Amino acid sequence: MREKLKKLKNIHVVKKHGEKIKFVMVGGFNTVLDFCVFGFFANIINTPKEVANIISTTICVTVSFILNYKYVWKSKKSKRETAPGFLVVSLFSAWAVQNIAINIVTLTLGENNITKLLGKAFGSICGMFSNYFGYKLVFRGKTQKGSTSHHHDEEPTQQS
After folding, report:
1. Residue 148: beta bridge partners?
2. SS3 annotation, the chain
3. Which pLDDT belongs to residue 91?
């Protein structure tokens, strides 16, 4: 199994896009978790869809931070330094972007159990883009001391 993983790491696409692949994997896991929690609260307990979304995304933001910090970005920054920015990006995507998307879908198609989940799916897709670029800044931007934080596999770029 280890040999297969080593071979997989040497594939050009994986080398070039490994970070994005990991981001999508973590995001996929988190999305499934988010849908399950959201669906439970919105459709089974009949919690208002906005409240159900806040509950589900709050749980998932915590899980996402741990997985993104350690697995996707392998940040050299401290958790204390990255957590506030991560929280701002995540909550903006989860609470603003997703709720807007859920409401667009339910207002357009009518509100029922299916359209709430379709809205959530649309919101998740929209949020994925804002999260990727926001997280990249949070985990890779300048550290508090002013030096740029690089991924351990990347060579620092030279300024000309």
Report:
1. 142
2. CHHHHHHHHHCHHHHHHHHHHHHHHHHHHHHHHHHHHHHHHHHHCCCCHHHHHHHHHHHHHHHHHHHHHHHHCCCCCCHHHHHHHHHHHHHHHHHHHHHHHHHHHHHHHCCCHHHHHHHHHHHHHHHHHHHHHHHHHHHHCECCCCCECCCCCCCCCCCC
3. 86
Residue at token pair 């001391």: 145
Rg (CA), the chain: 18
Output the six-digit token pair for 122.
Answer: 């649309």
What's the whole-model pTM score? 0.68
Give CA separation, 19 vs 24, 25, 37, 47, 132, in Å.
9, 10, 27, 36, 10
